[in-house]
Predict the structure.
Amino acid sequence: MNFINNFAGTGLFDDFTLTLPTAGSYSVALAMGDPTTGGAQNQYFSLFDGSNTTALASATNVSTAVDHFMDIKGTVWNTGATWLANNVAGTYTFTTTTLRLRIGSGITSGSNSSTIACLIVQLLAASSNAGPTVLMHRRNQLFYIPT
Amino acid sequence: MAFNVGFDFRLTSGFVTDPTNYTYVLASDTSSSNSRTPVGQSSPVSFYWQNVGGTNPSARDRRRDCSMRGDEFHQQFRGHGPLR
């Protein structure tokens, strides 16, 4: 797993940045937790579409006991097997080709760490606006159809 | 166009062998030019950890990270069925 301490300080986050093949609708599954003895953690994450600042999904200070995993909806499942059987992936529309998953509390008084074990991203449908701009030629005039 | 990729976040690349459609992410993957081809796929995927504020992520290898869950986490990729 990769992690950042929640007490690292104000403004301290790490963004997992993934280039998507196209804008469109994606299924995103997430497992955040720590299976190790002593691995009780507190999970913070936000999922963003490119540089947009409004999160598509987020969780703040969700406690995960040892060997418990939180899904992207913020539900905590005991053991990875239970996570697999029950976790709920989210469906999100990306208008850009950048998925940005931020972990960490960004505060100085947080507890434990935000720990990411697994992320699964699946394209469900490309945006209908993802095609090239269409040009029409009429009487020597060019018309641009916005995409 | 298909895109179906799982990312296993861990400390060392060789800790486990990734199954089909998976690749690994290290805490040291902090270059914006970083890319890696998931197992069984032909095209690389570009990803990296973007340091926001001065601290890179840390990492550990854990026996129950998703890379270890050949009969658990990875089941959902069989047949490319819908994710739960």
Summary: Chain B has a mean pLDDT of 77. Chain B has one domain: 1-78. The CA atoms of residues 32 and 48 of chain B lie 6 Å apart.
